[in-house]
Amino acid sequence: MTLKDLNKALSDKSSTATEEATEEPEATKQTFVSHLVELRDRLLRTLAVIFVVLLCLMPVSNELYVWLAEPLLAHLPGTSTMIATQVASPFLAPFKLTLFVAVFISVPYIFFQLWAFVAPGLYVNERQLAFPLLLSSTLLFYCGVAFAYYVVFPLVFGFFTAIAPEGVTIMTDISHYLDFVLKLFLAFGAAFEVPVATYLIVRMGVSTTDALARKRPYIIVGAFVLGMVLTPPDIISQTMLALPVWVLYEIGLLLCRLTIDEDALAEDTDSPEP
């Protein structure tokens, strides 16, 4: 082989390597762009579903607000009513509630879109774990909101109206009332996710059920601190949030003991990778 042929061979090999190196970033770029396009499409679908549900609920927005205000109205004296202190409040308060309800109803579809987006990148065992967790998270959030409305609200509003000083007429602004109850809805919905959080902590090997059980006193104190931060400054709502958190924590520990083989999990974690 002559020197000219050798130089030509080396040049061809260098060109081939350069083309392969160029194609690899291009493929990575195309994959990233395709993920962004898919994410955009799923977000648009989610917004479209929420918008359709919102349109369906708009004719009954006032009825929804009356239903939401029922726990307070049931405890108001006969001469007391709810009031609107701002010009746009009679429209904005029901609309804001209707939008919240539309998102609330669309939560299963939102989680489905999330699941469909991340599922292709998961292993089979991760898929088997992720879908039940999404489903249980949805149901627990719904349970937390229902608990707040049917159990906590009657007690809290009964307490507030009962301790009003003599001569004080209770007339709650509709916008302030809506902000108050939505805050409680989100607080109790999030608090009811404790079993899922407990399961994930054990399943990922961050801690064990025995270690979490030994931390029970700290969890109880933390639950009451959480209730103090997330709820109004009254002992009833704080206790009504702290007690379910404690009970759900115990339920989470029980589920971990029944469904997770911690010995096998520890062996998988400690075993060296090939």
Structural topology:
Elements: H1 3-57, H2 61-73, H3 89-118, H4 124-162, H5 174-191, H6 194-203, H7 209-214, H8 216-230, H9 235-259, H10 262-270
Helix pairs in contact: 1-3, 2-3, 3-4, 3-5, 4-5, 6-9, 8-9
Question: Could you give a quick summary of the protein structure above?
Answer:
The protein is mostly helical.
Question: Would you kindly provide a written description of the structure presented here, covering whatever features stand out?
Answer:
The protein is mainly α and 274 residues long. The chain has one domain. The protein has 10 helices and no strands. The protein has helices at residues 3-57, 61-73, 89-118, 124-162, 174-191, 194-203, 209-214, 216-230, 235-259, 262-270. Helix 1 (3-57) runs antiparallel to helix 3 (89-118), helix 2 (61-73) packs across helix 3 (89-118) and helix 4 packs across helix 5 (174-191). The longest helix is centred in the first third of the chain and has 55 residues, at 3-57. The two termini are 44 Å apart. Mean pLDDT is 79; it is low at 269-274.
Gross morphology: flat
Distance between the termini: 44 Å
Structural class: mainly alpha
Please bin the fraction of helical residues.
over 70%
Low-confidence stretches: 269-274
Rg result: 28 Å
User: What is the tally of beta strands?
Assistant: 0
Which H/E pattern describes the elements?
Answer: HHHHHHHHHH
Count of helical stretches: 10
Structural descriptors:
274 residues; mainly alpha; 10 helices; disordered C terminus
